[in-house]
Amino acid sequence: MTPSRFRGFTLTELAVVLTIVGLLLLSLMYTLSAQTEQRNFEETRRRLEAARELLLGFAIAHGRLPCPASSTSAGDEAPLGGGACTVFPNHNGLLPARTIGFQIVDAEGYAVDAWNNRLRYAVVNSPLAACAAASTTPHFTDAATLKANGMTCLPNELVVCKSATAITATTCGPALNALTNQTAVVTLVFSLGKNGSAGAGGIDEAANLNGDAVFVWHTPTPAAAGNGEFDDQMHWITVGELYGKLIAAGVLP
Fold first, then answer.
1. Is 194 exposed, middle or buried (0-12, 13-18, 19+ CB in 10 A)?
2. Angle of helix 239-248 relative to helix 11-62, nearest 10 degrees?
3. Do the beta carbons of residue 108 and residue 114 sit within 8 Å?
4. Predicted structure pTM score
5. Residue 238 Cα distances to 91, 124, 228, angstroms
6. What are phi and psi of 233, to 5 degrees?
7. Which listed residue, 28, 87, 89, 176, has the most CB atoms within 10 A of its CB?
């Protein structure tokens, strides 16, 4: 009886198998990476929503909004007790995590997103519009002034635009480019996204870090987009919502 002969894989067959395995591994890694990024995006969104609720809770408890934290205030508002904010008129402040009780912070006490980038925060600190009588500033970060000035006073500073194309240091430029008007937003909090403060050279992201009162928000775009990569996330609070919460809590009028 002739013994059976077993033939091994040829080099070509081994190469084909290894190529298929490699492609499957690459596909798996890409899927896992995409899932991780989606989880980070959703977690950052949840953190921004939590920060927004804590800001409103702080306003109800203290009759005012907190000032931003500065780069040297270790997560506290600057100055403590509010009033004329330390970072004003530069709107490149940080979320005052310790002041509002935000718990997810870095080693220095600053609130962070899911990529460990510090959350940014801006608030109207002086310009007002439509006040029925003589008013003093700061309005929204000083409880006594806010109450004395009354609810006819509207913000006249922060504005959110659809893109940085044609914006100026104070406006969105063309009316159709504005997501909000300048008498609507009293404060906003935002994440710099995965790419952080370095960004990718996009002009829309750069508009959120230049220190003025004009901000940009839209859905994420890749680096190849007209205005470059954009992955910032942003939430804001309107004057109507703030006043409504303060009225409902009996803080105003």
1. middle
2. 50
3. no
4. 0.84
5. 17, 11, 28
6. -120, 145
7. 87
